[in-house]
Design goal:
With 170 residues, this protein is an all-beta fold. The protein has no helices and twelve strands.
Length: 170
C-alpha cells in the first residue's frame, strides 16, 4: 500500500540546544535526481550520489554522511553543498508505515530504531520495520497520537558513512 500522506523532507534539527550544522562540498555524480533533504554518500569514486534505500547500514550503499541542502542538478561534477551527518547530528523526519500507509505516533516509538526509506520524493522512517540500525528516535516533535508525526533522530554508526565497507566508524 502506498503512503497515504507524503512525508516532508528530512532536515537538520537542534531540539536540545545543539547546533551541529557543518556544511561540506562535493561533486555531483551524473544524472542525479535527488531532492533537498535526501541522504547522500560518495559513489566510491569521489562523486556524490543518493544513498540506497533503505538507509540502515545493511549494505555498503545503505548508509549516508550528508543531507542535501538543495535538489540535484543532474550535471556531472556540479558543486554539491550538504549538511554533514556525524554521530551527534540530530535530524527531523516523518515516522510513517510503508505497509499500512500511515502510522500514529505512540509512546513506544521513542528510543526505537527504524530504517529510513525513500518515498516518492522524500525519505521517512518506516515504523513497520524495527531495525538494528538506521534512525534511532531521541524525541518527538509532534504530540503522541499524531498521524505520520515528526520525530528527532540520529543515524546509528552502521548507517553513517560513505560507500567504503570499513567506514561505519564515522
Amino acid at each position: 500500500m502506498p503512503l497515504t500522506n507524503q512525508p516532508q523532507a528530512l532536515k537538520l534539527a537542534s531540539p536540545f540546544g545543539m547546533n551541529a550544522d557543518v556544511v561540506i562540498h562535493g561533486a555531483e555524480r551524473a544524472s542525479q535526481t535527488y531532492k533537498k533533504g535526501a541522504l547522500l554518500q560518495d559513489d566510491d569514486a569521489g562523486l556524490i550520489t543518493e544513498t540506497a534505500t533503505p538507509c540502515d547500514g545493511s549494505g555498503v550503499t545503505h548508509r549516508a554522511f550528508g543531507l542535501a541542502t538543495a535538489d540535484a542538478t543532474g550535471t556531472t561534477s556540479h558543486d554539491v553543498l550538504m549538511d554533514y551527518i556525524g554521530p551527534y547530528t540530530v535530524l527531523e523526519g516523518t515516522l510513517s508505515n510503508a505497509t499500512a500507509g500511515t502510522h500514529t505516533l505512540a509512546v513506544g516509538d521513542k528510543f526505537q530504531t527504524y530504517p529510513l526509506i525513500k518515498g516518492t520524493y522524500n525519505w521517512y522512517l518506516d515504523a513497520n520495520a524495527v531495525a538494528a540500525n538506521g534512525a534511532f528516535i531521541l524525541d518527538f516533535k509532534d504530540a503522541v497520537g499524531t498521524v505520520d508525526g515528526r520525530v528527532y533522530f540520529v543515524l546509528t554508526a552502521a548507517a553513517r558513512g560513505p560507500v567504503h565497507a570499513a567506514s561505519g566508524a564515522l
